[in-house]
Amino acid sequence: MSETTTAAAAKNPSANPTTPIVHKKGQVDPASLRHRSLRTDEFWRRIPGWKDVDEATFLHHLWQEKHAITSPARLVEAVQSLASPEFIKDVEAGFHQAPMAVRISPYLLSLIDWSDPYHDPIRRQFLPVGSQLEPDHPMLTLDSLHEQDDAPVPGLTHRYPDKVLFLVLDTCPVYCRFCTRSYAVGLDTDVVDKVSLKATDERWERALQYIAERPDVEDVVVSGGDCYRLKPDQIRFLGERLLAMPHIRRFRFATKGIAVQPMKILTDTAWTDAVTEIVDKGKKLHKDVVIHTHFNHPNEITGITQRACDLLMERGVLVRNQSVFQRGVNDSAEVMTELVRKLSWVNVHPYYVYVHDLVRGTEDLRTSVATGVQVEKRVRGSTAGFNTPLFLVDAPGGGGKRDMHSYEMYDRETGISVYTAPAVKKDQYFCMYDPLSGLSARVQADWQDPAKRTQMVNDALAAAKARVI
After folding, report:
1. 316 Cβ contact partners less than 8 Å away, ≥ 6 residues apart
2. pTM of the prediction?
3. Is 156 helix (H, G, I), strand (E, B) or coil?
4. Is residue 335 helix, strand or coil?
5. Of 219, 289, 405, 462, which sits 20 to 30 A from 252 (CA to CA)?
6. Are 363 and 135 spatial neighbours (Cβ–Cβ below 8 Å)?
7. Tell me: the pLDDT tens digits for 437-468?
8. Domains and CATH numbers, the chain
9. Which of 77, 18, 21, 12 is nearest to 49 (CA)?
10. 315-350: per-residue pLDDT in tens?
């Protein structure tokens, strides 16, 4: 090395590759990168009933469908000695009290920590146990979001000026305990007789005719139920009808499937091809067609998930995520931050986090608005702004999605938060209610008294109206 080169290196250490650079920030903590560690082992073989299932078989969507868990007997057949007799008895009690039919994919069941199923975040979402259920909040109604009240035709909710929600069917690859559409989705249960939203030609035509006749509608959510349950020809039919309407600029196929059965993207080529075809046609027409999915916990994201999302990305299919904020599942900043970063790592855009709706049989999963506020503060800034989800309350009574922080008033003693929705339902007020278990014993007792209950709500509404300018 010449004297000139040596002098230059001394002034600029980065020019000399053998000179260590002193950074202002310290070394990277490996724990901060845990969101990149995706399971690639054959984790399903830990389930006794599936210990001999090879990867090709497990990854086939038809095998997943055939071996879905729909009863305590099928659960016992799969997990065998992994679950204690006491736990199975508890599950049986949970089945009888659940507003949703139970259906869990082998993929999900295999990801549960069977050494501690009571605290496992995946089990909590899909397998009810009687011992953990809590009494419903007194203000709960079966269709708390009033989707049916805002439906001009059956299964089509028109709440926002330029958007409609089209519930095209009422079945799913799995059934979530916390489903806000437990009034319609899935089979009848011991506690709920469902509203019928079958995928019939007559009902679809009425909905499509309404959309075609409404030039103000630009955005359609095709949901249900779950679009994973649509046949490829139905995907094409709905997609082409919507794309043919000049005023429709964007629509989304809503499916939880990528979170609960990602192998369908890989092995049901006809379904994936149909979605790709509609997305491509949309791009040629300068219209936005995407998938909206639903991950709630980092443990739901595996190497199989990444393979499915990689394929969708290669095909130009954008995927956004909507989570539900749930107690014992993702109601901590650590878990929610890992979820957001893990979603981003597999190219799924974190979009919304909903404070848990008022849903029958799920009071044990609900969280307070205050918990959401605290977690959101710590999640924001952990990754890029466009990859940070918006935390929302879907206002009971049909107020629609409101920024969780935008309440007009919030009484943490009674657990009542009040929201307005000027662009949706002008001059109306909508109350959200924290779970009873987080309130004082005195206030919990007040909620059971109809007169005191009415007074608490009226006081909250009066306080909110006094603050609105």
Report:
1. 276, 279, 280, 283
2. 0.91
3. strand
4. helix
5. 405
6. yes
7. 999 999 999 999 999 999 999 999 999 999 86
8. 43-132 (no CATH), 156-406 (3.20.20.70), 408-469 (no CATH)
9. 77
10. 999 999 999 999 999 999 999 999 999 999 999 999
